[in-house]
Amino acid sequence: MYFFDIDDYCGYSGYIPAVIGPNAQNYFLNGVGDMEDLATTYRASKDALYNSVNQWYNVSNPPTITYEFIQNQTLTWPSSTATYTLYNGGFNSFDDGWSNNPISLPIPFSINGVSSSNLFVGTNGYFTLGSGSNVRPTTPVEGPPATICGNPGDNWLEPGLQNDDLDIQNVYYKTGYEGQGRHFVKLLVYGGTYSGVPIQRKVPTSWVANFYRDTKYQWLEVMIKSTSTVRGSAGPYNVSSVAQTPTTTTKVWRSDLNGQNWEYLGLGTVSTPEIPSRTCPECDDYFDIFMATQTNLDFFWDDAENRFVNISPQQYQQFVYSVYNNVKLLKLLIACVDGDTFEDFTI
């Protein structure tokens, strides 16, 4: 390790180094060749140390990318269904029914503590996990199964029926994995309104719901189409209601990984940050400070081929202090990541 024991290498008084220590070779009197060998050894040892610290840190405090909320942005209604998959499994009823076959999620998601990779779309403007539901809510309900609502009410969903705005009623979806533990399912639902008069069933109630899951949270985006009639309150079921009136501007909620403790974040979108965060951001600060010391001793060893004739007493003092400071920073980093404790370290 290139952080050799300065107590052994040089005697000192306070912060001012005095003479070469009695237990060390007097390097300043050695030949130039010895100096160059020492400098070569130092550079190799230093590079190995910083590479090892970098590898250890990325394993011990790995970078993670969780989704983030971007306030005051909005999604636009999909201009095409081309990037979606058409659900063609049918419904057990167009009125108060749900999809016969589940949409398979890439991993289990959760609603109110119930996890499943099977998602069912209800004809009344909501979706559930694990099983379908025939409730006729105007706000998210506890269940089981609990609901996440896009535009809930006494709706109608008949695949193939053309709405007044010329959209064809049906469900489209897409699922995916975005790396770093981030998964999503996106629903595009073209629905109508229940009525005993068939022509009234063409009144649009269409909605979008995008459901995300990362290593820390679940996220929900909801919006309705500009031609849709508002039917009820959108959002996930939560013990304390966080439901909101759906709008053509995207609204966002976030929960824990059990699909509980939801909070309404506001108008905006769910996005992926450009810069990943660490499990412990505070440790990231220590890491950055330590890694920035990678070259702060080079000025001393670069003069080895001259037998340090260009190093002044003040520069040598700076060198000694820098060695102590580097060790101190490394100990602070290790303590932050691993919780290790060390004896007091002072110059």
Task: Please write the string of helix (H) and strand (E) elements.
Answer: HEEHEEEEEEEEEEEEEEEEEHHH
What Rg do the Cα atoms give? 32 Å
- CA(first)-CA(last) distance: 19 Å
Structural class computed from helices and strand pairing: alpha+beta
Q: What helical percentage do the residues reach?
A: 10-25%
Anisotropy-based shape: elongated
Strand arrangement within the widest β-sheet reads: 4-18-17-15-14-12-11-5
Uncertain segments: 1-25
Global mean pLDDT = 87
List its salient traits.
5 helices; 21% helix; 347 residues; alpha+beta; 2 domains; five-stranded antiparallel sheet; 27% strand
Question: Your description of this structure?
Answer:
This protein has 347 residues and is of the alpha+beta class. The protein folds into two domains: 6-61 and 280-338, no CATH class; 68-277, no CATH class. It is 21% helix and 27% strand. The chain has helices at residues 6-9, 32-60, 281-291, 298-301, 313-338; strands at 10-13, 16-20, 63-64, 68-71, 85-86, 103-111, 114-122, 126-129, 148-149, 155-156, 170-177, 183-190, 192-193, 207-213, 218-224, 235-236, 251-255, 263-271, 277-278. The chain has an eight-stranded antiparallel beta sheet with strand order 4-18-17-15-14-12-11-5, with no helix packed on it. Helix 3 (281-291) runs antiparallel to helix 5. The model is unreliable at 1-25 (pLDDT under 50).
